[in-house]
Specification:
This protein has one domain. It is built from ten helices and no strands.
Length: about 220
Amino acid sequence: MLDKIQHLPGSLVFAMVALLVFGEAALFIGFVLPGETAVLVAGVVASRGHINIELLCLLVVVAAIVGDSVGYAVGHRYGERLMTLPIIRHRRVALERALEGLRRRGPLYVFIGRFTAFLRAVMPGLAGMSKMHYRRFLLANALGGIIWGVGYSLLGYFAGGALTKIEKYSSWAGIAVLVLLVGAVFALHFRRKHLDQVEDTRWIAEHPDQELPKDFE
């Protein structure tokens, strides 16, 4: 996989990563593919000199902040109608929990949400829907975006450096390490999804009068 990516023009790699990170909240791509996966892989590619790591960090941070700002604008414009979108309707309970957390913690919850796949995808829209002042949202979101973007880019970069050293002894070992790295990201993603479902069940028990979507499972 890395060999195929490395044969792509650097500008195309940057564009793909930027689109995925931007689309997490702006287009709800985060429900399908967590953005940190693309950032980690791009970091590994940067460690091999195919793209510039400083430019990658900057691009990821900008794409994250701009994408979330678009998500905020969509939430502010369409409000409750977001809840009827097929891609997020079945997560209505999780959305209600997120709104509750947003009301209680405000910008702090926006910052925390940057580091959880589900919240990263929906938090900007929910913040806009809740009418949080954009400046407060932007400050918390930008801080989270900088830490998240630079952190995951560098994590992939240094992991890629270690991977290169391992490959000197065995190419299969290098492939195994890469598979484990990507697998760990997806494992954490699905583990968090399971915990979210547990929290959904608990939330329902604590809010028996709350109307649920017809397709809730």
